[in-house]
Amino acid sequence: MSQERSFEELEHDPREKRVIDIRNRNSFVRGSWPGAENIPQADFDPEQIAAGAKVPLYLMCQVGRQSQDLAEQLEDLGCEAYSLKGGYVSYLRRRLETMWEDAELAERRREKAEQSIIKKFRKQLWSPFTRALRDYRLIEDGDRIAVCISGGKDSMLMAKLFQELLRHGKQNFEAVYLVMDPGYNELNYRAVTENAKLLGIPIQTFRTEIFDIVAEQTDSPCYLCARMRRGYLYSQARELGCNKIALGHHYDDVIETILMGMLYGGQVQTMMPKLHSTNFEGMELIRPLYLVREADIIRWRDYNDLHFIQCACRLTESCASCGGTEQGSKRGAVKELIRDIAAKDPQIEKNIFRSVENVNLSTVIAYKKDGVKHHFLDSYDAK
């Protein structure tokens, strides 16, 4: 069996070395060891890696299992190779502990994160955020908005944007920063609460048993989980006197949803910037990050050396094959597809987004409105 090494041992190894993250691309861009290169396990060729190996190799996966197997293969090929113990989960836990325990460092980190929104990332974050509020009329006088925080990079940034809006912009509404604990494990729950504290977000938390309920379901557990979470958020927000909930879906979520509808649902539809609730009268859902690119959120996170939870689902968080990621999911496949075609033509992403703004009903075979289907033959002869 190959040797395991901790991240502390990696840091104290004075030699030149190569750190390889074998998780899928989507997981890698969400966070990794600084300076690591990404070679997904599906593309990892031990013989090719060994042939060019001139320095010690450190392999990292999600929880330290696949990296152990590949390190053994490399050792058999004559390489000095190590599996990083505990994988990315262990590294994340260590980084979070460091962030939380140093109060002075935390204060500097908060100030830097806030300033970077208005200054360094003004064009990428602040401007599209305020443009979405304006173009889609997401905030109105007297609103009390529940800013829903899952603990990931998107919702945390959204909370900071709302704080900056209240500090420097509109003050015609109120914001409540709401965190639902659907049954997080200890690390994930602490990550949410401590990161909120670090960033100066005054959260209100409430507990549900959604993960326990969904774990017993074999048919569409993700769909059920999403519906239950939405319902609990609406209910809690209404108890707090809110008339809107804000979710952290961004531009990339929108174009992925459009393409998923076509490829897997055989329909043209989009993720709307705002929706009236059908089950909670008087309540509305808004998506303030609608025009913000995920890559820019990642740049803001990395610039400020912030570390957030990735996937907190208990059904996948201990899975060695996916590591709590989107690997193998329809959305993950569509994300990869968009990335591949956008690499050849950067205009593709904008065109997907604009496609649902430029629907020409005169060239559509059929469409639905308010549940009623309309066919082009209905008025064909009249023309």
**Mean of residue pLDDT?**
88
The top level CATH class name of the largest domain: Alpha Beta
The CATH architecture of the largest domain can be given as: 3-Layer(aba) Sandwich
Main structural class: alpha/beta
Helix proportion range? 40-55%
Overview of the structural elements:
With 383 residues, this protein is α/β, with parallel strands linked by helices. It has two domains: 90 residues, Oxidized Rhodanese, domain 1 (3-Layer(aba) Sandwich), CATH 3.40.250.10; 201 residues, HUPs (Rossmann fold, 3-Layer(aba) Sandwich), CATH 3.40.50. 46% of the residues lie in helices and 14% in strands. The protein has 15 helices and 13 strands. It has a six-stranded mixed beta sheet with strand order 8-7-6-9-11-10, with helices on both faces. Helix 8 links the parallel strand 6 and strand 7. Helix 5 packs parallel to helix 9, helix 12 packs across helix 14 and helix 12 packs across helix 15. The longest helix is centred in the middle third of the chain and has 19 residues.
Could you list some keywords that capture this structure?
Rossmann fold; alpha/beta; 15 helices; 383 residues; 46% helix; 13 strands
Structure summary:
This protein has 383 residues and is α/β, with parallel strands linked by helices.
SSE layout and pairing:
Layout: E1 4-5, H1 7-12, E2 18-21, H2 25-30, E3 37-38, H3 46-51, E4 57-60, H4 66-76, E5 81-84, H5 87-101, H6 103-118, H7 122-135, E6 144-149, H8 153-168, E7 174-181, H9 186-198, E8 203-207, H10 210-214, H11 221-239, E9 244-246, H12 251-265, E10 274-276, E11 284-286, H13 294-303, H14 330-344, H15 347-355, E12 366-369, E13 372-375
Parallel strand pairs: 1-5, 2-3, 2-4, 4-5, 6-7, 6-9, 7-8, 9-11
Antiparallel strand pairs: 10-11, 12-13
